[in-house]
Amino acid sequence: MSLLVVIAAILLLVFLVTYCRLNTFMAFLIVSLLMGLALGMKITAITQSIQTGIGKTLGSLIIVIVFGAMLGKLVAESGAAQRIATGLMQVFGQKYIQWSLMLTGFIVGIPLFYNIGFVLMVPLIFTVAARTGLPAVYLGIPMLASLSVTHGYLPPHPSPTALVHEFGANMGLTLLYGMLVAIPAIVMAGPVFSRFLKQYKTAPAAMFTAEPMPDEQLPGMLASIYAALLPVVLLAVTALIKVVTVETQPLYQLADWLGDPVIVMLLAVLNGMYILGLRRGMPMKKVMGVMDDAVRDVAVIILIIGGSGALTQMLHDSKVSSYIATVLQGMHTHPLILAWGIAALIRVCVGSATVAGLTTAGIVAPLIGSTGVNPSLMVLATGAGSLMFSHVNDAGFWMFKEYFNLSVKDTIKTWSVMETIVSIVGLGGCLLLSLFV
């Protein structure tokens, strides 16, 4: 009976978000409340569970998410993203221009919130298309595959960061494993798949083109890459140090402190403020304005994550999560495949990768303790599933369609297929890594 209640709750969530167009945060709260009543919980226990779930989830994540948004906004507004793109194109040359755009998307996509990255980087694709005479879709898919993968797989993006918390994974190791899984996924969905897209020669919508900043106003190449990748470097280096040292050594303790996601993102933002802003003569007031805009950009996603925390806590407090774990174990399916499959199903139904990943976390988290599966790989498998087959109920689908001036049919044949490749290759990478870690 309890399992049927959970299934009905998820279907109700899909209905409220997809068909009723209800605010996702409100939908999570309504579903959590109704699920608690259906499971026989007292109303006071339900409201307490909702408050606890929101507090527990956001308490450890909100700093990382907000700092990540601030750093990404600085990278974009300062021109660092444009500098990285133009610099890499000069290194790779026109023959390998797709690879330079793909690498740009990967570097910039790590700190840059996905929707912001899409809006800010797509005009750059159009500029390159105009200069080279190559189709915009052919050039754009590799960069957008990179942005999508970093959004779904890698901390400090909101969904992977929340999944790290829910699954009890190490953020540094998750980032390292995520890099190994991300690279083949991006290559397959980007340069390899886009070879078949040269026939899509529609001109981009004129309203979305933008003039690039003059080169003399851009920060240096090394400074741009350093500012964008500092969180990755700190998380990766401290994770490696902790692997090769013991807990009693001072070096381990220093790495443990520096590797804390809050410290990592604080240092990265302070570094970005100086390197990309103050050192280049940007007034402090303007730097703070960029920070304020970044907070507004992620306000909605913070509420969605809080709402998902309420649903997760409700599953835990009602003891349903333990029952679901027992049922799922009885299916004799690899937990990584289960996590991927559930996330993929919710993604196709709801459209939001974030909602798909976080809803899945509340269902499959108990499997980690009972099966011994690597929690970092569960984060990645869930993230991969949450990217599956973006279609008409996903905002990203319509953004791609309108920016690249495509029909719905052609958007499915390009964008939706790219997202599907990213998802399936990601699962394959997780399963392969599970043989070794």
Automatic annotation (TrEMBL):
<comment type="similarity">
    <text>Belongs to the GntP permease family.</text>
</comment>
<feature type="transmembrane region" description="Helical">
    <location>
        <begin position="174"/>
        <end position="197"/>
    </location>
</feature>
<feature type="transmembrane region" description="Helical">
    <location>
        <begin position="57"/>
        <end position="76"/>
    </location>
</feature>
<feature type="transmembrane region" description="Helical">
    <location>
        <begin position="412"/>
        <end position="436"/>
    </location>
</feature>
<keyword id="KW-1003">Cell membrane</keyword>
<keyword id="KW-0472">Membrane</keyword>
<keyword id="KW-0813">Transport</keyword>
<feature type="transmembrane region" description="Helical">
    <location>
        <begin position="336"/>
        <end position="365"/>
    </location>
</feature>
<feature type="transmembrane region" description="Helical">
    <location>
        <begin position="261"/>
        <end position="278"/>
    </location>
</feature>
<feature type="transmembrane region" description="Helical">
    <location>
        <begin position="218"/>
        <end position="241"/>
    </location>
</feature>
<dbReference type="InterPro" id="IPR003474">
    <property type="entry name" value="Glcn_transporter"/>
</dbReference>
<feature type="transmembrane region" description="Helical">
    <location>
        <begin position="26"/>
        <end position="45"/>
    </location>
</feature>
<feature type="transmembrane region" description="Helical">
    <location>
        <begin position="136"/>
        <end position="154"/>
    </location>
</feature>
<feature type="transmembrane region" description="Helical">
    <location>
        <begin position="96"/>
        <end position="129"/>
    </location>
</feature>
<protein>
    <submittedName>
        <fullName>Gluconate:H+ symporter</fullName>
    </submittedName>
</protein>
<keyword id="KW-1133">Transmembrane helix</keyword>
<keyword id="KW-0812">Transmembrane</keyword>
<dbReference type="Pfam" id="PF02447">
    <property type="entry name" value="GntP_permease"/>
</dbReference>
<feature type="transmembrane region" description="Helical">
    <location>
        <begin position="298"/>
        <end position="316"/>
    </location>
</feature>
